[in-house]
Each structure stands twice: as C-alpha cells, then as structure tokens.
Amino acid sequence: MARIAVTDGIDENAAESLRESGHQVTIGHHEADSLRSGSLSDFDIVVIRSATKMVEEVISANSGDSGSLKLIIRAGVGVDNIDIDSATSHGVTVCNTPGASTNAVVELTIGHLLSSVRNIVRSDRKMRDGVWAKKEMRGSELRGKKLGLIGYGRIARGVAEIASGLGMEIHAYDPYMSSELMDGDFTLHEEVDSVFKECTHISVHCFFSDETEHMVNLRRVSMMPSIGADGIECGNHIVNCARGGIVDEEGILEALKTGKLSSAALDVFESEPATGNSLLGHDRFSSTPHIGASTREAQARIGDEIISIVEEFEQGIIPGSALNRLL
Amino acid sequence: MARIAVTDGIDENAAESLRESGHQVTIGHHEADSLRSGSLSDFDIVVIRSATKMVEEVISANSGDSGSLKLIIRAGVGVDNIDIDSATSHGVTVCNTPGASTNAVVELTIGHLLSSVRNIVRSDRKMRDGVWAKKEMRGSELRGKKLGLIGYGRIARGVAEIASGLGMEIHAYDPYMSSELMDGDFTLHEEVDSVFKECTHISVHCFFSDETEHMVNLRRVSMMPSIGADGIECGNHIVNCARGGIVDEEGILEALKTGKLSSAALDVFESEPATGNSLLGHDRFSSTPHIGASTREAQARIGDEIISIVEEFEQGIIPGSALNRLL
User: Fold this and answer.
1) Nearest to A114 among B107, B127, B297 (CB)
2) Is residue B322 part of a domain?
3) Same domain, B84 and B111
4) Residues of chain B with pLDDT under 50
5) Is A322 within the bounds of a domain?
6) Alpha-carbon distance values, A129 to A278, A287, B275, B277 (Å)
7) Which residues of A touch B155 (CB under 8 A)?
8) CA-CA distance, A73 to A87, in Å (whole number)?
C-alpha cells in the first residue's frame, strides 16, 4: 500500500476511495522551501495540481538516494510545473489525467463562443446598469461560420464536434497531428496564418511553448475576414480556454480598440490571477478565472483516474497516461 | 404591384429587393391614433414587428369598406399584437415568418444554458470587480443531465438537437404536439409537473397564454431534483428565451434566494423594457434584453421570407405561413 501526499487538493470521494483501498493519504500544502528540504521524501506518490512546482531541486530532494518518491500524478492536464526530464533521470514516473477535463473545457469553450457572438455578458452588464440595450446587443450566429482551431488535440476535437452540430465549418492547424486524425470532416491548414485568413472565429487548444507563445497576435488577428462564410458581417472573435501566453494580450486589446476584433474571451492569462489585467476594462472583452477544468464532473473523473493510476502503479503496470518511460 | 407600409423597421436588403420588384415601400412609424384614423388605409400590405398593435379598431379603420389593407405580415413569430379574429372577419390575411429566427433563439438558449452552469456572466463581473474567484466559480457540465423543454415546437426541437449533441437527455411537455413528432429521441411527459420532478435544467419554448402564464413557478421549481441524472450535484437551472410571463418572476427570485435555483437566465420579461426588474440584483440571475431573434442572420432571413410572402400574395397564392384562412 502506498503513502500518498496530496498537495493541491483532491476530490473528496477519490481521497476516501484511496483510503478504503488501504492507502495512506495525507492532504496538505507544502511550501517551496519544505519541498526543497525533502518534505515529500517519506511518500511514494505525490498528487499535485498546478500550484506545486516539481522542479529539479524538489525532485532530487525527494527521490532516488534522498527519498522514496516514485510517482508524480498531475490531477489535470498541464505539466508546465513539472520538470519531466529531471523526473526521468531520478526514476520518477510522471502521469497526468488528460481525458478527465476534456468535456468541461469543451463546454466552456462553446459557452464563451455563444456568449461572445450574442453579447450575453455585455447584455447582463447593461441590464444591471439600467439600460435596455436591445438594438446595441444585436449579434450573429455561429451557424454558417468558419471556426479555426489552433491545435487539434482531444479538446479541440470535442469542440469541433459540437461546433459542427451548430453548423460551423471546421478548420484546424496542428503540426503535430497524428496521421490517423487527418481524415476527419475539417480543413487542415499547414500554415497558422492561413487559418486566420479564412476564419471569423478562432479558438485556442494547444500547449504553451516557445513555439506557441503569442501565436495569436495583432498581425494575425488583422488577417481575419470579418465576414462569415455565409456572407454575414459577423466580425472576428477569439476564445482561449487553453493556456495563458498563447494569446498576446496587448495585441488583442489593440484589436478590440480598433474594432478588428468584435469580441475576445479568455479563461487563461499571461499572468494569473489576472485581476489587474488591462483587458478587463474593455466592453467587448469577457473572461473567467481559469475554470476550464473546474466542474464537479471533471473533478470526480480526475479522482477516478488518480485511483486507477495508483492501482496500476502498485501492480507494477506503467499507467497509460505516463509522460515518461523510465529505463 | 403592392403599396407596402413598414411600421417597425425591416432589413435594408429586403426593402431594397421589394422596391426592385416594383413595390412601393414606405418605411416609418405610425402612432396608435393615426392607425385608428386609417393611416394604413391606402396600403395593401403592412409589415410590423411587435410595436405596432393591430387591434380590432385599427384593422377595421384600414380595411374592407374603410381601406385597402389586405395583408398583415409580422416580421417575426409572436402575434400577440394582432387580433387575428378581427383580421379574418375583415378579410385581412395575417402571416408571420416562423422559421426565420429559429436558429437565433436556439443558439441563445444554448448560450444561456452554458453560461449559467459555468458562471460565465458571474465570473466576468467578479473579474471586473478585481476578484479572481476561481473556487467560487466552479460549475457543472450539461453532459449527463436531463433537459426539460416546456413546449416542443420548432425552436425546442432545435435546442434538443444541440443539447443531445452535448450529451443531455431530452424531456418535453407539449399537449399540442402533433403525433408525427412524438417518436423522437426524447421522453414525452403528459403532466408539466413531472418534467420539473425529473429535470435539473428547464428551458421554456411555448407561447404565452392564460394556460402558460406562470407555468414556471416556485411550486414547480421546488420539485426539481438538484442532482443530475449522472449523480452530480449540479443544482437547478431555468432559461426562458420564449415569452415573458410564462416564468413567474417573483417565484424565481424567491427560489434563487433560497438556493433552490442555482441560476436563472431570462431573455424575456413580464414587463419590458425590464430595466427596473428586481431579479437584476441577484448574483445568480443573468439576462439579455429580448434579443432571441436579434441576429443579423435572422433579420436577413425574415427579409427573405417577407419577400416571398409578398410575391405569393400578389400572385393570389395563400402564403404558407398564413395564420387565418379567409372564406
């Protein structure tokens, strides 16, 4: 039975299930200093979200000769906060729970798209200000428009399915797309610029990296057509529920000011918490505080995945979501 | 060629097309007094929205022995503002454009549903207030939940299609459903109460009448289960993009206050403009100013339908959307 540290919280039912299976589960935050001093060294497994930074110094202080840590489970998708190379060299397996939050992000993305084109957030604000802005709030429909997906992984494909059902035409850019996915009902672009040139609606679904940093910027947004595939002047719209920094916020604000963008909706920011962000003052900007995976359902599914990862690992099986293969 | 009065506005392209076909189109508001004095008596056709009230006195002053009015076209769906019996007895045909705004209302309804369960409007408000309320904004997913549709006409069926794609289970109450529609992939309820007992999400898609007034009320909302079909505590949610007055606003406010409702989203109100509405103060209420049909696409389609109604009528054909059959 494993000794498990949970440093950034976990679904209650999952913790309960792990305990019922005989595991020792210790829930509580570890400060960066403590981590560097080996506060995880008496644990076999650590379950983290994004707050705990598993950098080289932390991994080496808790594994190998210095401790018993053998498995890092990221409850969620993004592993920006884990030095996977370092984990590999110290014999520590890294897993995430990639499928658990897919539907949560898909639904938030569609929600932001619909809210943006129909001015739901702006309308509510006007109503609370005592203004019945019926004419000003005229919007456009998603049906008949081209949706450009930057990245075509699991979440983007889920968004594409719903957006197709809404009558959108799907375009995608993803240089890492595996060949078996290329035959779907969408247009695959080899250049990111060409997606912007064709699509009035863009949604971001890629990882953050040097390559994707500021991929959505003023230059590219300026290429967007403003007129839908159906000939309707629907304006241009951007949604990012993936990772902060892929959208150049300064460029987006400029595009909102000039009217090149009719709306922008962000769930993620270059700097979080984003309470002082200058985009927040713009009427046609709307935002949520990084809640893409934040549904009760996703948390429950993450809990289920953590349980199965722990079970497999205890049986000596490499979990399916392992991000490194140890020698 | 017909003399056409347009009293509440029309899509520019539609007016242009009608003129190009040789019709005389006069655009401008008519006061109630003028209408009663026969200001439409020199027109063959009047195109109205909801603002112009075609009551008995107005119809009799402009048709039959008193004038040449023979066709009333409602640019939109609701004909609460037209006395159809009076029109029939004066030999005036009444048409609306029922299909033109369907998709616009479908998309707004799904937008309100997603925005409600993911706290998009609340999140944006908090962000602008300088609060990063990530934990408070945790939401739930539509997938795996039961959606109850009150009324199962064209719009409700469109909502059902998208909601099914999102993984919802569809329930409907519609005592006027034609038998050929009963075999779809949904559960048909014979009692409205039973929809509320089963569904955590309710969307209104019926006409306003004595029968439907306050059909959504505190008693019925109190029957809603709070726990989704998938076992998730998602709370209860109400959306109305149909007609004001079907939802008892006082009851809904009470249900929001007690937490029986987790959200309510209204596009239509008992009294409009609804700027002083007491619901507007509640954090979990969100609203839009009666913009269900207010998309560029719907206005363009309404224009197209008006043109074809005028053409058919001029050729002596009863338009397909005629709401009365003259003897």
Assistant:
1) B107
2) no
3) no
4) none
5) no
6) 21, 19, 8, 11
7) none
8) 12
CB atoms within 10 A of CB B278: 11
Do A24 and A141 lie in one domain? The reply is: no
* Beta strands at B169-173 and B146-150: parallel, antiparallel or unpaired: parallel
**CA distance from start to end of chain B:** 24
The pLDDT of residue A141 is 98
Q: Are residues A74 and A132 in the same domain?
A: no
What is the number of domains present in chain B? Answer: 2
Q: Give the residue-averaged pLDDT of A80-89.
A: 95
Distance CA A188, CA A320 (A): 28
Residue B319 forms part of a structural domain: no
Tokens for B47, please give them.
């195109």
Q: How far is B10 from chain A (nearest CA, A)?
A: 13
**Which positions 178-197 of B are in contact with A (Cβ < 8 Å)?**
none
Distance separating alpha carbons of residues B67 and A55, to the nearest angstrom: 85
Question: What is the C-alpha to C-alpha distance for residues B213 and B223, in angstroms, rounded to an integer?
Answer: 18
| Cβ-defined contact of A132 to B272 (cutoff 8 Å) | yes
Q: What is the pLDDT of residue A78?
A: 84
Same domain (yes/no): B90, B123: no
CB pairs under 8 A between A and B: 199
Q: Are residues B61 and B152 in the same domain?
A: no
User: B141 in helix, strand or coil?
Assistant: coil
Does residue B284 contact residue B260 with C-beta atoms inside 8 Å? no
Residue of A nearest to B294 (CA): A138
Residue A325 is assigned to a structural domain of this protein = no
Q: If we measure between CA atoms, which residue out of B292, B296, B304 comes closest to residue B107? A: B292
For residue A283, what pLDDT is reported? 98
**A247 in the same domain as A172:** yes
Domain that holds residue B223: 102-287
The C-alpha atoms of residue B3 and residue A280 are separated, in whole angstroms, by 51
| pLDDT tens digits for range A222-237 | 999 999 999 999 999 9
Which CATH number is B277's domain given?
3.40.50.720
Cis peptide before B225, with omega less than 30 degrees from 0? no
Question: Contacts of residue A114 in chain B, CB cutoff 8 Å?
Answer: 107-108, 110-111, 114-115
The domain boundary, picked from B269, B287, B305, lies at B287
Of B237, B243, B284, B301, which residue is the catalytic one? B243
Is some CB atom of chain A closer than 8 A to the CB atom of B283? no
pLDDT digits (tens, 9 = 90+) for A195-223: 999 999 999 999 999 999 999 999 999 99
Please give, rounded to a whole number of angstroms, the shortest distance from the CA of A203 to a CA of chain B.
Answer: 16
In a shared domain, residues B176 and B273:
yes
What does the pLDDT read at residue A210? 95
Q: A140 and A42 in one domain?
A: no
Q: Which residue of A has its CA nearest to B116?
A: A111
